[in-house]
């Protein structure tokens, strides 16, 4: 009996440890980190123009990943009450009480400091400043206040969401030039229809948690008009990189193809009856669009290295 009890206790411990690590990993929102790293890659290689520095590249990728992870951990702390009300987020570690606020804040601080140190050692002061500003906007402005109090929270949040590619770009150039500004505008514009689509197919969640996103405050029809408008603005803004000779033919073709299809989907939303299904498609294509654009930036920059 004692041996059986001991074996059972040992098995429970083995189960608890992996579960604990999964909770800690979930705290940092790995999916968000992954998507932002692809955007950072695009910004880095857009500026690299066929050159490559392992130290800078490694520092910016690791550093921004740690800073984003820190911001996501803080966001989990701030949103733990509303996360508990939403079907999509109610199983998060803090919402369920599996991780304490003190532990989460400690992890956030550790990750944030490590990320800033990594960026400071391997890149430049501007890159560090941009990463810190992005963290501050996401945590201090968006999460702490705007998300709960204003329909413009999405717009403010888009600034922090657009920062990773700019950080990647400025890690190479060391200056905030026209290319960095274009990336900031492109990714800000992309964030808006992407986020509004989420708010439409998660409408019930946002309404239950009293989060004043545009579809909840002004209705889904108005949100559709905003989605269309932002996509219309996104396409020419994206093509500005080609006009400025910072991106090539491959980028032009991908942007026109993906942006055009995204625009077609946005227009189709005014005649389709299933808003949830439509919004999920708009959301999915938004991810495919920005991922394809970021990766083609990488490929176009790598071709001179191979030739």
TrEMBL record:
It is found in: Cell membrane. The keyword Membrane applies. Gene3D superfamilies: UbiA prenyltransferase (1.10.357.140). It catalyses: heme b + (2E,6E)-farnesyl diphosphate + H2O = Fe(II)-heme o + diphosphate. The chain crosses the membrane at residues 30-48, 54-78, 99-122, 128-145, 152-174, 180-204, 225-243, 249-270, 282-306. InterPro entries: Protohaem_IX_farnesylTrfase, UbiA_prenyltransferase, UbiA_prenylTrfase_CS, UbiA_sf. Keywords: Cell membrane, Heme biosynthesis, Membrane, Transferase, Transmembrane, Transmembrane helix. Pathway: Porphyrin-containing compound metabolism; heme O biosynthesis; heme O from protoheme: step 1/1. GO terms for molecular function: protoheme IX farnesyltransferase activity. Its main location: membrane. It is a multi-pass membrane protein. GO terms for cellular component: plasma membrane. It comes from the Bacteria. Its EC number is 2.5.1.141. One of its GO terms (biological process) is heme O biosynthetic process. Belongs to the UbiA prenyltransferase family. Protoheme IX farnesyltransferase subfamily. Carbon 2 of the heme B porphyrin ring is defined according to the Fischer nomenclature. Converts heme B (protoheme IX) to heme O by substitution of the vinyl group on carbon 2 of heme B porphyrin ring with a hydroxyethyl farnesyl side group. This is Protoheme IX farnesyltransferase. It comes from Vreelandella andesensis.
